[in-house]
Amino acid sequence: MNNFWITVAHTAGKRLKSKAFLWSTIIMSVIAIGLMNVENIANTFTGSDKDDEKAQSTIAVISDIENAEITELLSSYDEGEFNYVKYTDGSLEDAKEAVESSEYDYLLALSGETVNLEVEFYGAGTDFMLAQQVRTEVQRMKETVVTNELGLNEQELAMIYSPINFSELPLSENGAVQTEESHMQSYWMVYGIVFAIYMIIILFGSMIATEVATEKSSRVMELIVSSVNPVTQMFGKITGIGLSGIVNIGVILVAAYVGYIISGATYLDTMLRDVIDLSLIGYAVLLVVLGYLLYGGVAAMLGALVSRAEEVNQALQPLIFLAMIAFFISMFGLNVPDATFITVLSYIPFFTPQLLFLRMGMTPVATWEIVVIITILVISVILINLLAARIYKGGVLMYGKFSFKGGIKQALRFSKKEN
Amino acid sequence: MTLEINSIKKKFDEHVAVDGISLKVGKGEMFGLLGANGAGKTTTFRMILGLLDPTEGSVTWGGERITYKRTHLVGYLPEERGLFPKLTVKEQLLYLMRLKGMKKPEIIKEMRTWLERFQVPEYENKKVEELSKGNQQKIQFMAAVLHKPELLILDEPFSGLDPVNSDMLKKAVLDLQQSGTTIVFSSHQMSNVEALCEDLIMLKRGRPVLQGSLKEIKRSYGMKSISIRADYKLDFLQSIPGVLSLEETKDGAIVKVENEKVGEEVFRMISEKGFVRKFEIEEPSLHDIFIDKVGGDADE
User: Fold this and answer.
1) Is the CB of residue A54 less than 8 Å away from at least one CB of chain B?
2) What pLDDT, in 10s, does the model give residues A66-120?
3) Domain at B3-218: CATH architecture
4) CA–CA separation, A302 vs A309, rounded Å?
5) pTM of the entire structure?
6) How distant is the Cα of B118 from the closest Cα of chain A, in angstroms?
7) Do residues B48 and B3 make contact, with C-beta atoms less than 8 angstroms apart?
């Protein structure tokens, strides 16, 4: 056990002291702070201009309807974001030309009757949000005109516009219901964490494999395994790299939090208080750790099968593909989290970390199911690591050209217990 | 504690790497393991260290197998040298020796003593990749002996060293032996084996072909070498039955014969022919015995 901790300290220490680690952590932290403040930074450059631009947007209104009331109302309406100007200097074609020559920003053509109003909105490079706004404003003017014509008083108007009370309730007492807002927020949170699991598996997996292969190729491995049991050493390495990873991620998270404080935003507080179930964060950590151990064991084994550091990538490919498949399935599953194939695939250990989290974050999952899936995952972690340890034990003594089948066979032969 | 190997055999599927090696090395003895490349030396060492399990037979040291509980009593210099290229001498030794159960101050103290002894005290904070091969080997040797092991396994300790460093290392090995360390080493430089060990075993394709004390082996070894100096051609000696080879030198020849009887016959033939300046029957060198026994298998 003592040698285990010596290996952990050596592995983590070597990594933490390396310049590459230091710089990548600093750069990632700066990026994290920056991302948290991206809005503020953007505003510093363009913010004020943007507001002016909106206020100055002028829309030429050309009307073909008998009742000029809507046009009047629009041009006198100054609470909105646009400045509506009545265009009377010519035909629709003239108006279009006027917009093209930048006299106006957009063109609004009204025709038909007040009740069946036909509205055409012309503009180049406009985004759909803008048209929506214009539409809402024109609609409001129409409603005002029509209600006026009908001679409704304020009370009657208030009755029409008073909002209904709509609330969503779960069927069972503890069931969950998604509001649109919570759906979007959990969507992004699940997206973020699934992506994080994917990155952690790939990054730290290849770190483990590279570390093992480097020790093998420099031939220091034989000396080490003459002092410490290779299995102890393998788990020491996985733990050591895991710890340095925790430091790495921890620093970046702290940086992101500092960036969040600086930005002065409050969405995180609301999210943590209202939207995110804290137990879900607990499950995320558990799944990250189990996923790391599962993929880490395989990565260590693959690292032990190669003789040169250059061959690591080739050996790691299947593992990376596996993680990528899990990632793409999750991306697809974000929109259909309760599809049968997502449910089924979430039972497969190599997909569990990402898919189970996806399911738990997006839809209610029965407790018994969570217990079963996590038990399967834990058992697989143990079995895979036992197998990986055997292959590792033989693999570290083995040199030659890399091949999966031959390599694994030879490694098992080397580590064979004979008497 | 005595190292005892009882007829070990190691099979990798159908391939037999080591077959039927038995030996005993007492405390403070130095034992040589000879053989061509691929003769099974490294596999034997790995079995002694417990890195590989023998298919048959057993390896015990003081009556017990060597497991990871006792590795702090064992030092190992692998044939394939390897250290952490990016770590300094101090960093590596700290890690490797901690694995052997040593504490930091002790490691530093021993390291400085050895660096001093090898006349390279300035290397303490140098990265290993900056050192020459010979100097890397000194560090590698230190990694095998810093923790004062009771059993020391040296796989080709002198290969790739210049004569000065080779002598320095040889002296260190002898000193360790005198202080009671049991040493098993392999080499294909026969002169080193002759200079260092009392007992040896010679392997050919995993099997022992010769075993015993160096003196015994040489004395009882049938083949003799005759050194002759004469003023006439000596190649006619080749026709005598029992002459194994004849190598002409600039003023005579070296004749290898099966045994002393054949040597007498050679002497008779020469005396019939004429005067000789020198006629000497010598014991064969280990080199000759090696070539004779391992023969075409040596691929060096």
Assistant:
1) no
2) 777 778 878 777 777 778 888 887 788 888 888 888 788 888 888 887 778 888 8
3) 3-Layer(aba) Sandwich (3.40)
4) 11
5) 0.74
6) 21
7) yes
